[in-house]
Amino acid sequence: MGESTSGVAPGADDLTVVHLMRHGEVHNPDGVLYGRLDGFHLSDLGQEMARLVAAHLQVNDITYVVASPLERAQETAAPIAADHGVEIATDVRVIESENQFEGRSVGPLDLLHPRNWHLFRDITKPSWGEPYEDIATRMLAAVADARDAARGHEAVVVSHQLPVWTVRNKLEGRRLWHDPRKRECTLASLTSLTYRGDELASITYSEPAAELLARASKSVGA
Predict the structure, then answer these.
(1) How many domains in the chain?
(2) Phi-psi region for residue 103, left (φ > 0), alpha (ψ -120 to 50) or beta?
(3) Where are the extended beta strands (E) located within the chain?
(4) How far is CA 60 from CA 19, 44, 64, 150, 153, in A?
(5) What are the C-alpha distances in Å from 40 to residues 29, 33, 148, 185, 207?
(6) CB 207, CB 213: distance < 8 Å
(7) CATH number at residue 48
(8) I want to staple 177 with a disulfide (CB 3.0 to 4.6 A). Which of 2, 68, 124, 143 is the partner?
(9) How far apart are the C-alpha atoms of 181 and 38, rounded to whole Å?
């Protein structure tokens, strides 16, 4: 999986790791792009994903768990927090991005219908949703606070695909606009940021629930 480093070797007492986790699979039989809508919970498979990642992280030194306020993120965080005896903090800054298509059942043909063309006038901002720069700014602030809360230990931040991918692009110095099909951020994946003090030392990506991904049904949303 992808990895980038700044050349700082880990191993000192001042290392802090912030794991950015995407939530598990959501129960979404109608294929709605649920965005920030309430009422979308983890599916049975999503619950299984959350438990599997919790087991994967059981030996880690996690002292802080924070999640988006949306149900799917809170439910994904629950077994991790329980295993480490901590409460789940809630941070609205790691919530899903705003999207003009929220609440709609959309497929490729629907997206490309002439009535939607005006929403695609600027793919770099993007014109159909929350600006990438705004997503990056709020995520960076949330990551910094999680790092401070878990200083010398590890934190888990449960968020959503686009926010996680956007902040990773920002930290790696890449452009923020991108092809959504090429995001490296599957369901229940971990994008782990290792800091020495306040300096980012490395970014690693892993998929602890990979064995379950083949069973994940296709659902619209992140």
Answers:
(1) 1
(2) left
(3) 3-5, 15-22, 62-67, 88-90, 154-159, 190-196, 199-206
(4) 11, 25, 11, 12, 9
(5) 11, 10, 31, 20, 23
(6) yes
(7) 3.40.50.1240
(8) 124
(9) 25
Distance CA 113, CA 187 (A): 28
Sheet containing strand 62-67, strands side by side: 3-5, 199-206, 190-196, 15-22, 154-159, 62-67, 88-90
Residue 220 lies in a domain: no
**Inside any domain, residue 218:** no
Query: Which parts of 11-137 are beta strand (E)?
Result: 15-22, 62-67, 88-90
- The whole domain housing 37 covers 13-213
3-state secondary structure of 20: strand
Query: Measured in whole angstroms, how far is the alpha carbon of residue 77 from the centre of its chain?
Result: 12
Is the Cβ–Cβ distance between 61 and 47 less than 8 Å? Answer: no
pLDDT tens digits for 150-186? Answer: 999 999 999 999 999 999 999 999 999 888 889 999 9
Please check whether residue 117 lies inside any domain of the structure. yes
Would you state the pLDDT for residue 181? 86
Encoding tokens for residue 81? 């927090």
90 falls within a domain:
yes
Concatenated DSSP letters for 84-99?
A: HT-PEEE-GGGSPPPB
**Per residue in 102-157, pLDDT tens?**
888 777 777 778 887 787 888 889 988 899 999 999 999 999 999 999 999 999 99
Q: Are 71 and 162 in contact (CB under 8 A)?
A: no
